[in-house]
Amino acid sequence: MATSDQFSFAPSIGSMALNAFARCGVRRTEITPQHMSDVFMEANLLQSDWSADGIIWFTVELIQQPLTAGSPTYALPTNTVAVLDVYISPNNGESGQNRLITPFSRTDYASLANPTTPGFPTSFWWDRAIAPTITLWPVPDTATTYLMSYYIYTQPEDAVLRGGGQAQVPYWWLNAYVADLAHRLSRIYAPEREAQRLVDRDRAYQTACKQVENVPLYITPGLAGYFR
Questions:
Q1: Residues 170 and 183 occupy one common structural domain
Q2: Is the pLDDT of residue 218 over 80?
């Protein structure tokens, strides 16, 4: 069998836009600067919509933050969409056991009788503001040096068409990207095809979403307190 022995298929956003227009019945020779201006806006709105819909696994990253005794609140990267797992390591992560800490809500935090209690942090409140922060409780004490490690998923990098810019998506999400872009462009240039483009978009998106961490799921009731 003569195969390519290549794994480099990574079309630019412009190339994917041309394919999306083709699905809308717009030929390449008919495309104007106005068409590409609409692609720029719709591609970035597409990425915003995906970020709001759920975890985009391919933008998950690990951040490590040394903690300061007596300081409960720390800034998160401004492109954070959601905080996932958070764990604390004693001795600045060089020795000792990591401890996974659990989230609580703004109301939970406001209900604390003494939010400045010092100790080994066991909980965190993620303030989902424009400039997001994470607040720990108990507040890190002086018993040891603490290292906070946390996973976040971030918004994708901006969709930029110039210079052959590519979308920050893996191979198995390319079709979902084109299908979604075609649906969005059909609203403007081919409203008679919008219903079918919506069906195609939903099918492609659901197929891409099946690519998740392939691990067992365990559900265990919490029978004991965790706070110290």
A1: yes
A2: no
